[in-house]
Amino acid sequence: MDKANSYQPQAMKMQQMGRAAVPFAVFAARWQEEVLIHKKASTKATMEGHIKNLLIPAFGKLAVGDVDSERVQSFLNRLAGRLSPKTISNVWTTIRVMWNSAVAWKYVTGELRVELPRARKLRMRCYSVEEVRRMPAATKGAERMFFWLAAETGMRAGELIAFRASDVNLENLSVEVSKAIWGGEEDSPKTEAGFRCISLSARLGAALKEYLAGRADGYLFQGQTGKHRDSSDVLGRRLNGLLERLEIPKYDPKLLAKFVGKERSIEQATRSEKRAASLGLHSFRHTNVTAMDSLGIPQQIRKQRIGHSAGSVTELYTHTFTEDERAPAEKLGELFGHRLAGSSWVGFCAQMRPNRKEGVAPGGSDLN
To answer: For the chain, how are helix, strand and coil distributed in percent, rounded to 5?
Structure first.
């Protein structure tokens, strides 16, 4: 039997029959009912998984008052051999948020202090420019439009799936990002910075106009019933099939071997490492950032387009694009739309600046 779950709380022994003696599992259940329900769907699902799979087995029968920095540090240290540093950091975030409620509700006092494993940043694999250019020529309709938008705008998959025809401003050549779909539920974007307007190239604007054919409502990518597309369908059936047709390897075993090093086998790679060595929907986002860096687009505009910048939602909703913001859109449109337009790739490459960040090449990005 697990020692933690067979443990008799010290708070009980000391006859401290207040809230500190409540089992962690009881507190966790109440916290989920009172606090977790207000979190975004994606955050809620992640934290529920942490609580069910990790925290309850480790602390379930402990009194809340007996959960301290030492026990939490030992718990996180044990995770180091099983989970990636980023995942462990996310688990710590769940513990910290729950602890804040425990303090506010007077179950405990003080704060938890721990040292997290040092996170190793992985250079995410992404599509090369030439790979992205081949996609529009090999697709049509909604599929073609989805991948083109993903590459030029860098929008998250959930944002693209939640995209509506009314979010497109063909006159102003822009799109408004104000929602995302995760787990089938429509919600706001991942962060406040995710509320943004993105300028489009004239090429993409013309393609969107042709695709919409006058339609002004409904999801941009919808089924026959008018319901939005499912991300698993876009990834599993559409993208993976496209990669196979174009003979673009989805998985890079050499890159994964580099991630795990000599001390582990490929089979022992973490989920984050496997993801970093594979191509998927999120890879378009990394491709977009890498392309903007290669084109010399200012960092502030890069952050704004990708949704990593600060600023009020109101300012982004009443956005007027300057020439500085129009120019990057046209550069990206020329870069990714080259194959359709038939312009000279060799001539365009000669105009591109070299990467300014050490270690970032057209096949990889440092976006996290």
So the answer is: 55, 10, 35
Name the one residue in this structure whose structure tokens are 């003696």.
21
Q: How far is CA 365 from CA 38, 47, 94, 121, 286, in A?
A: 33, 28, 28, 11, 5
Could you give the count of Cα atoms lying within 13 Å of 103 in the half-sphere of its Cβ?
11
- Tell me how far apart the alpha carbons of residues 321 and 198 are, in angstroms, rounded to a whole number: 9
Distance of alpha carbon 318 from alpha carbon 264, whole angstroms:
52
Of 293, 247, 252, the residue nearest 125 (C-alpha): 252
Residue limits of CATH 1.10.150.130 in the chain: 4-104
* Alpha-carbon distance values, 60 to 4, 80, 86 (Å): 8, 20, 24
Locate CATH 1.10.443.10 in the chain.
124-365
Interatomic CA distance for residues 283 and 365, integer angstroms: 9
Task: State yes or no: pLDDT of 311 exceeds 50.
Answer: no
Over range 43-62, report the average pLDDT: 96
Q: H-helix or E-strand containing 223?
A: none
| pLDDT for the residue numbered 151 | 94
Q: Indicate the CATH number for domain 4-104.
A: 1.10.150.130
What are 265-299's pLDDT values in tens digits? 888 888 888 888 999 999 999 999 999 988 999 88
- 3-state DSSP call for residue 310? coil
Those residues whose C-beta lies under 8 Å from the C-beta of residue 30, and which sit 6 or more positions away, are none
Q: Which residues pair with 174 in a beta bridge?
A: 169, 199
How would CATH label the architecture of 124-365?
A: Orthogonal Bundle (1.10)
CA 318 to chain centre: 26
Confidence check: pLDDT of 79 > 60: yes
At 345 the pLDDT is 33
- Judging by DSSP bridges, how do beta strands 180-182 and 174-177 pair with one another? unpaired
Query: What is the identity of the amino acid at 129?
Result: V
The answer for 191, left when phi > 0, alpha when psi is -120 to 50, beta otherwise, is beta
DSSP class of 354: P
Tell me if 357 sits within 8 A of 326, measured CB to CB: no
